[in-house]
Amino acid sequence: MSFAQSLRQDADPIFEAIYLHPFVQGIAKGQLPPESLIHYVSQDTEYLNTYSKVYGMALSKAQTPDQMRLFYNRIGILLEGELIPHLNLCRVAGVTHDEVMQHPVELAPTAHHYARHMLCVAQQGTLGEIVAVVLPCQWVYVDTARRIIEEFQPTTEHPFYDWISFYASDEMHQGLMELTALLDHLAPGARELDLAMMRSAFLDSSRLEYQFFDMAFTLQKWTPSGPGAYPLGEKPDSDSFDSLSVRVNTCV
Ligand SMILES: Cc1ncc(CN)c(N)n1
């Protein structure tokens, strides 16, 4: 079994729990509360910004032009392509994407944790660790979307057809294959300790993928809400808005 497959096997109970999570089942069955969809899109936009930067950090540690090209292409897909599933969720929620983007976002605890987890590994880890930390993001969505297609056979009438078909696409699957191939290329040259760090990064990201769906489903926010914190969707109306925006932007 390849190193990447052994990580996937270890994470199988987590992937199974993700598939059965009410948010994912809601996507599969075409029924989710609008507030959860909006919460997801606004948090995920921030998450994907951080994720793109992590690919940029991987690019800086790449060892060959082919590896550089892989990370460069992934950044392009993240910044442009992932708008498709977000537009789909907004449409079902009955809001425009612009309306959701209008509101500055404070990262909820899980998105905050996930972003910092990736940034920390990207800053301190080897290239292999960075690939391991980003891999569940790709793997969870491709597996989930393909399993939904297998079980529910959604047609174009399905409310989340665009979301499902985007993540189940050959292009996304190809990206997953490229990342697992790179991890399997790097693993044989890694020390035992580095392999353990890769495994830990992969499992933590897998758990955080579960938590991320849960965050959206439960509309997670910081408690107690403190100075500067505000409920998603409510625009601060005081002079504190500027300093808040600065703090929010430094989150990504
Ligand atoms: C949290 C999260 N993980 C994964 C994906 C799919 N790239 C996403 N959009 N958001």
UniProtKB/TrEMBL annotation:
The keyword Isomerase does not apply. The keyword Transferase does not apply. One of its GO terms (cellular component) is cytosol. InterPro entries: Haem_Oase-like_multi-hlx, Thiaminase-2/PQQC, Thiaminase_II, Thiamine_Salvage_TenA. Keywords: Hydrolase, Thiamine biosynthesis. It holds the Pfam family TENA_THI-4. Pathway: Cofactor biosynthesis; thiamine diphosphate biosynthesis. It catalyses: 4-amino-5-aminomethyl-2-methylpyrimidine + H2O = 4-amino-5-hydroxymethyl-2-methylpyrimidine + NH4(+); thiamine + H2O = 5-(2-hydroxyethyl)-4-methylthiazole + 4-amino-5-hydroxymethyl-2-methylpyrimidine + H(+). Coiled coil: none annotated. Belongs to the TenA family. Homotetramer. Catalyzes an amino-pyrimidine hydrolysis reaction at the C5' of the pyrimidine moiety of thiamine compounds, a reaction that is part of a thiamine salvage pathway. This is Aminopyrimidine aminohydrolase. It comes from Alicyclobacillus ferrooxydans.
